[in-house]
Amino acid sequence: MVQNARIDDLKPWISSLGDGAIAVLSHKNGDMDTIGSATVLAAWIGSRARATGLHADKVSKRMLQRTGMEFRWMDHRHPTFPRALAGIIAVDTGGPSQVGIEMPGDIPMFVIDHHASSSDQWPEDTMLLSSDASSTCQIILELILRDSGRIPLEWAEMLYAGIVTDTGRFKHGSENAHRSVVSLLDNSTLNPEDVLQTIDGDGMPSDQRKRILSSVSSMEIHHCGGMIVATAKGGSHESRIATSLVSSGADASIVTKHLEDGNIRITARASWRSIESGLDMGAIMSSLAIAKGGHGGGHKGAAGWMGNANQGEAIAFLLAEIGVQARGD
Ligand SMILES: [Mn+2]
Prior knowledge:
Number of domains: 2
Radius of gyration: 20 Å
CATH topology of the largest domain: inorganic pyrophosphatase (n-terminal core)
Shape: globular
Bound molecules: manganese (II) ion
Order of helices and strands: EHEHEHEEEEEHHHHHEEHEEHHEEH
CATH architecture of the largest domain: Alpha-Beta Complex
CATH superfamily of the largest domain: inorganic pyrophosphatase (n-terminal core)
Helix content: 40-55%
Largest sheet: 7 strands, parallel
Number of strands: 14
Strand order of the largest sheet: 1-8-6-5-2-3-4
Mean pLDDT: 93
Low-confidence stretches: none
């Protein structure tokens, strides 16, 4: 059985491992929340810990460069863990399929995540800390603040960037995210404006912006139990397309992409208002995986699925599930 853990269980768990190395593992999409959590947690644990993973997105790469935080890239073809590995801590990871690599079976595992659904299960005896914070970076912040007062500037910047991006700039879970930022500001010399510049980068080239705009303009509108759901096909930047559709007025959005390996990836977003009224896209994506195979899950307002199914059938399934949840039956 997976063991439910609390934040105070992490230190004793680390001590129980002896002196071997600890891999702090980010999820395969490598967003800012997972990279921020992994690098800061590894630095907090000390020299025996290494932040590692397969991928980091553009924002995370800019923030790694800005802060100089250490991150060990895994080779896609031959992912390897540190030698003399005693334990793995997976951060911001809803289920094993989100790790993207084969996990060594006999190594103790601790998972730190925030409120997500997943269609797959962690191995026996995994310690699972699942919090209702808006980002995993906030859980890492709480862990550090229990220990000592001041937070080094590089840590504060990584955690701040994770909170900003995972809440869609404070559109989701505003209250607890704002509280965490206040404690970051109280305990470090963080300068938010300066970090926001790095998060934004130099903007996208015009050909990419044109592709996004044409995906948005090809969307279709569906009515599901009183909710307006927008669907679109995306060549790339699906999360940006899905987010744009919700900020333009959809209660939920579904964006599909055909991958080179023949699989389909589906990205979904929901508005704060529809989450409040009971919509849970993470649970819907998990049930898609149960019904049609593949892997799916995520948060109430941001979720995904990947697998090999007929696109029309998958969309019809999702629209029907949204309708069921919207009607509350
Ligand atoms: Mn997250």
